[in-house]
Amino acid sequence: MSLTFASPSADARPLHLVSPEGVEAFRAGLDGRAAAWLSGTEFSGAAGTVALLPGDDGAPTAAVLGLGDPSKRGRERFAVAKARAQLPDGVWRLATDLPADERDEAALGWLLEGYRFDRYASNPAPAAQLVAPEGCDAARLEAIAAGEALTRDLINTPAADMGPDELEAAASDLAARFGAGLTVIRGDELLDQNFPLIHTVGRAADRAPRLIDMSWGKSGPTLTLVGKGVCFDTGGLNLKPGSSMGLMKKDMGGAATVLGLAHMIMALDLPLRLRVLIPAVENAVSGSSFRPGDILTSRKGLTVEVNNTDAEGRLVLADALALAAEGESDLTVSMATLTGAARVAVGPDLAPFYTDDEGLAQALAACAAKVRDPVWRMPFHAPYESMIEPGIADLDNAPSGGFAGSITAALFLRRFAPAPYAHFDIYGWNPTPAPARPKGGAGQGARALLAALPKVLGL
């Protein structure tokens, strides 16, 4: 797996980017041999097509990538990444000038195209390498690619090898690499230290529930990231059908995403104080499973009526957010694979987010478009507050009726979180392969948030 740029080299071969309307002009600028060869290949500039241009000895000395119809170009991110798997081994350079945002997208896409999940089977990465385009921040892009790779690896790993123990180990390895502090509260210690919801959700599993708490940085504003770490979700006593359980290894996608984002922040040495909180549990079935109808008391003291044990993510996040509210935080962000309702609303590619902070919302939207990490603001719709108030307890973890499921889950979490606060209801999975985004685990919202932090926190 190659997630770094090649060293600058005088021998780097040029990769030209050409749209259909520019093919004739490009061909006219080639020498006779190369122009004739390109004509013979019938290269038309169609999206994703690559033509190799031979030198005097017949070996490829350059290549051209088709960009496709300009009117359709915005439909697909990281189009330049398509070239990587089609180019022969060696060092290449972008030979087409691009605006800064497009240049960075092309460079990052190239790196991400080198990701392969090969823990269980051989999965060779493309051999072609790229020199960092002039003007881009190569170290930043490499840090982002490494953080995204960490997120993908954690999500892609099946639950047998990625339970609470292994998620803790991943956080511990990350903390050790960057000199961060790490504390972990496990098992019945959760009750002793007043994390009752985390304990309740995870107590039925053989693998002990825990709260992972990582801290890094000594000065600057404080950013708290809270990630849902449900390492497998059977649904509990409200058992999921088999068709809905098949992807539940990704139910710790929020934890994986905040760890990937934490990697980016620490690798870039951003001038802030970072705290990462991960409630890591397995929602299993046994005689000690929590039950529909149970009323639980949270760390904050709010009581919660359980109307569906499959709405467990908001329970474990509630205790972690309550802890965040007890400390100092200039911004708290939760990320969770929380609701199917979010997928119905926006599909798998968009990450809906919620916040009451208008400046944060605007910064996230602008930065998401810039770094091609699509997000979509959803409302904390106050009239729906009554939907999460069952009367018998302060809160209902699964309001009946099925309406506004993502919004009511976000409203539930807001009851526990400090302000300013943002919540991402992510999917964490790419269902179909795309350039720089293979089928499987995927980070969502992390790059947009990373890009927004300087403006939001005044870095």
Automatic annotation (TrEMBL):
Keyword Repeat carried by entry: no
Spell out the GO cellular component terms annotated for this protein, sorted alphabetically and separated by semicolons: cytoplasm
Instruction: Extract the Gene3D superfamilies matched here.
Output: Leucine Aminopeptidase, subunit E, domain 1, Zn peptidases
Kindly list the GO molecular function terms attached to this UniProt entry.
manganese ion binding; metalloaminopeptidase activity
Q: Which GO terms describe its biological process?
A: proteolysis
In this chain the Cytosol aminopeptidase domain maps to: 308-315
The yes or no answer to whether the keyword DNA-binding is present is: no
Q: Which InterPro entries match?
A: Leucine_aapep/pepB (IPR011356), Macro_dom-like (IPR043472), Peptidase_M17_C (IPR000819), Peptidase_M17_N_1 (IPR048816)
Q: Which UniProt keywords apply?
A: Aminopeptidase, Hydrolase, Manganese, Protease
Name the SUPFAM superfamilies for this protein: Macro domain-like, Zn-dependent exopeptidases
Family assignment?
A: Belongs to the peptidase M17 family.
Protein's UniProt name: Leucyl aminopeptidase
Query: Which organism's genome codes for this protein?
Result: Tranquillimonas alkanivorans
What high-level taxonomic lineage is stated for the organism?
Bacteria, Pseudomonadati, Pseudomonadota, Alphaproteobacteria, Rhodobacterales
